[in-house]
Predict the structure.
Amino acid sequence: MFFEEKDTQEIVSYEEYPYAVYARVSSEKDEQVTSIQNQIDICHHWIEKNNYEWKDEAIQLDDGISGTVLLDRKAMQLILDKAQKRRLKMVVFKSISRLARDLKDALEIREVLLAHGVRVVTLEEGYDSLYEGKNSMKFEMFSMFAAQYPQTISVAASGALAAKARRGEHSGRIPFGFKKEGKYLVIDEEQAKVVRLIFDLFNNQGYGHKRIVYKLNEELMLGNIVKPQKVDKWQLTTVQTILKNPIYCGVFIANRNTTVKIGGRKKFIRNPKEKWTIYKDWGPKIISEEEYEKANNREHRARKKRFTPWNELRGKMKCGECGCNIVILPSYKYKQNGEKKEFNYLKCSAYRRGGTALCVNHAPIQYKDFRAAVIDGLKAEGKQLKLNVKSDFEEQKKKRIKQTKIEIDNAEAKKKRLIELYLEDQLITKAEFQVKRAELEEQIEQLTDKLFLLEREEEETIDISNIKMAFAQLERTDQDLFDAFSMLIDKLVIYQDGTVDFHYKFK
């Protein structure tokens, strides 16, 4: 539904009546139904039909962002900021569903806009706050329908998946060990042979996860087994996933996970087991239920499990050969008196997952020795360092903000000089003054919008107040130094021969 044209045919300029046209799509599927261009064209038609000057600068886009997550929508945040600074008089949407698909967010956005004198127009629903006045029932009803839509789709999709599961039909990625015939899974014997081997090695031959990986890659090189899906070599995570998947004993579990909205953002969580729907004898069995239960029995797993020592340099140590993370590999031996001595060596995580098939075996370095060398290196650097309390990221951001503010000040100065040229010096005509003033005001508005977005760029999280405190922590080597290392170190590149390249966060 559209609105009646104004009685006057005079065009209202954008400078007189600044407005925003908001458009959003959340997915490729959404794009097919209500594309960005489609939304803009509909709003463009309404703007010109109602005798407002069309300006491309008025368009604000959130592309590929869900309407249920307000905090991630930068364009909408910019519109709200402009409204609060009285720099907008109207916002036009194709529909309320483009504004938000969350009832609370939709009502909050409308409240902020109206509270700052901004006219809200949604075209599909025929809502215009200029004519509706304080009557918000229409807006609330359509907002509720818009919020209900994704929930309805989710419930319908869940119901359809549950119906398929009850019929034994499969949807989604095909697990290793199976192939699909029609709507159903059937056993792929070449792949199933590997699955049975994995469970046999783990359950009956005393192999741990890593030894299974080595064994599989040996058999793969000999041509005795097939490779896993999507990668050329067997890896630790692949083996662990197969051992934990009940589909191999014919059991399918639905509703294990869900998404919730926390603090304005979506989060993926695991449902409690009471909410799971378990379908036994759902599909063909590669192994028996007894074999699966034995592999996932807590006591059986506990006998094989080794606990990785605490790693204060986690995520910082990188392999110089393949780029993967370096992790701690615990090992031990017993002395003649029965005393157990532990050795915690550094290993490339790719080598740990797949042996020499994925990377090289590094020279043996114990974590405690490496940690001590890192601390000594940092202390040596700290003695020559002129301390700077900001990270490189913050410094670069600060420079961009400073430069943008300078550009805004320069534009403001030009505008002031322009007024002097017109009023005092009388060196330009009124028409020239109006044209140039409009250009400068548009430039200032664009720079102000840029500054707003810059100031809200996602920053690196800093757990300690400044670099000085991080260096001070290095003196207490008996304490957990994770925060200090995170502040000071960008990465540590470790090569096969044991040499290390230090990359610091400070200059």
Remarks:
- The two ends are 60 Å apart (CA to CA).
- The chain has a mean pLDDT of 80.
- The chain is about 45% helix and 15% strand.
- The domain at 178-304 is CATH 3.90.1750.20 (Hect, E3 ligase catalytic domain fold).
